[in-house]
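Retro notes, structure queue

What went well: the backlog is down to a handful. What didn't: a couple of records were mislabeled last round, so from now on we paste the full input next to the output in the thread. Example, using D-alanine--D-alanine ligase from Saccharobesus litoralis:
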Amino acid sequence: MYLPVIIQTMILAVRYRSLSLPLLANPKLTISGMVGVAKSELMMQAQNECQQAILDWYQFLVTNQPAAEQVADIMPLVKQQALDFPLVCKPDIGCRGSGVKLVKNSQQLAEVIASYPRGTSLLLQKLADYEPEVGVFYVKMPNQTQGKVVSLTFKDSPTVMGNGELTLEELVLLDPRASKLTHLYQERHPKRWQQVIPLGEVVRLVFSASHCRGAVFTDARAHITPELEQRIELIMTGLPEFYYGRLDVKYPDLDSLKRGENLQIVEINGASAESIHIWDKNTSFLEAVKTLMWQYRTLYKIGAYQRRRGFKTPGIGKLFKHLAIEKRLARYYPTTD
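Corresponding output:
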């Protein structure tokens, strides 16, 4: 699917005389948030409505202290920001849900911290009040006053329901989709894998709503409303010089989402973000390719405009440097919940 995108990128690089022009799309972010860029860098820039919509978070560095001592030092500072267990712990640098853990107590947090080398930046974030999650892809040309929501995608974490007779493994094997990803779910539920699940109990197979971790994506573009776009625009005015990316958003129900009400932002992804409706099983291969090609044409158009404004391209070497940083850190990431 990405081969046509690569070919188009080569053509665009020649036309615009730059291979790294997309790295100017969000000029206040290091390489526009393409890869290997800290989530905290973007969230620290958030102001007003954007800052309020992002779920509260706390960033810290792993030290040489025993993990339990680090937790004892961290938690009073975390609680000063009105945060407490359960919390979401995730690497500051990472993508596609890598290393995301739901920690319910100090012992679990210590176990997560112990898996990382000294100097790693980690985030603790408030657990959202709502279960449903949606990916909101936002694009705005620098010469325009209003951006646009170009993609909306439901992100559903798969579940199975116990019947009081079958084990978790047997329930997963009976599910048409989940049975294709058995290895992912067994790794996340080793203690319960051979246990009989009580009647009526719903087991959430993955916590992180990432497609590569087993979540199910469904095209929701039909639910984009003027009210939702207006709310997203108001939120994004609080993020300086941000023109291209995807918001991962929690919401209470579909009506609230369509009205743009009670939205809680988990994180905002930069230039490497995709319109994830392309991963809906009903999206054709041709439509997915067209969407990706449109995205990269848009990145080049935005980058070209930023260059005319006086921003300088960072160079392709910087991209590879940050890619290497992320790959090096990914070796230490614990299994995603």
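Agreed that this is the format going forward. Reviewer comment attached to the example: The domain at 56-127 is CATH 3.30.1490.20 (Dna Ligase; domain 1).
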